[in-house]
Design a protein that fits this description.
two-stranded antiparallel ribbon, 64% helix, 8 strands, 4-stranded antiparallel β-sheet, 2 domains, alpha+beta, 14 helices, ABC transporter involved in vitamin B12 uptake, BtuC
Amino acid sequence: MAVAERLSLGRLAEFRDLQTVILGLLAAFIAVDLIAKLAGFGLFVGPVKLLGGGLDVERLFGLVWDGIVVGLAIGLAGIGLSMTYSILSFANFAHGDYITSGAFAGWAVAWTVAGLTDGSVDAGIGYLLSVGYGDGPSAGDLGINVLGQPLAILLGLVVAILATVALVLLVDRIVFEPMRDQGGISLLIASIGVALALRYTVVFLFGPRKRGLTAGGEKLILGGANGQLVLVDSRGTLIQAQNGQDVGNAFFYKLPLPQLGDYSKEVISVTSAEVTLVVMAALLMYALHLMLQRTKLGKAMRAMADNEDLAKVTGIPARRVVLATWVIGGGMAGAAGYLIALERGTVGFNLGWLLLLLIFAAVILGGIGSIYGAMAGGVVIGLTQSVSLVWIPSSFATAAAFAIMILMLLVRPEGLFGGVTTA
């Protein structure tokens, strides 16, 4: 028995070594191919291109930036899912619809505040909330730019967080708390029912059509023959040029812009919505890090995630930790949904559901139960999905994200931060 076991372990080790070698060769080939593309070098055998080709540095920079934006959004959304699993021990399929609920709550407030404070728009609250519903007016018809109004953005974020937290606590009290002793499978099945109920409640309240969150925003472009900065609106109309004057409610204020010149060849463009998402997501993640590492509640949550029974014996208030888990996880989900909707400019009833598989992939890739793993996994998934467009059509980008998850787990089955729960 012992001999057979040793042989089995030896074969498993050899198989893993072979996996590592194959994946290393694949990574090396991709790296060489990318360098060759950037250098404009191609290796052909007859009509077949083996590697290389052409790739502008500008496009690669743009893809990396897009990947970071998407990755931070996925990572922020994945934090709550990871916390739920590590402390409450079940995969919450309602998490995607918490994201959607936060997005709609934030949209309703941000859009209404922006509309009421915009002097060029004469409309009441009811009319503003009807925008995008049925055959009503569209966001572009009113020309309201939420991204140019910091007060509307901040109020929308606050309401998105608070509304989602309230929803999460209500669902926990009605559905999950009575079932908590029945095991993770029962809670998982219940979460699917909660997800469907929330999704179609949103459809009932807001309709099945996507709602416009803003009529446009500013885009900061680094490009042109001399690498100058140019600020344009969503339609490409110049807002700021060499004089650096601020026009209207521009998001990027009074930038020192050199002579305009030709900006048709852009190196990288950054929208005001993307900047908002990146800054807000980074601040929320850092605040959570400080809470986990430097507060009694954070240490209690980490202890519960490591060993729930031992934590209870040592006097840690389990109910308080569970409540904090729902509050923090729900708040992060609501913030993520609102920021994603702000970046996209629209919000629909299936926003969170369509993102849920990518969020699960990020959590698994980073290491189930690790908050830092969810953050890192989200960035890896986002970058993979975006940069893979160098080689494959956009319709396969999501498949590439799942492929990188599988390949990484072959090398490191426990995930990037495996064994590091909530810390």
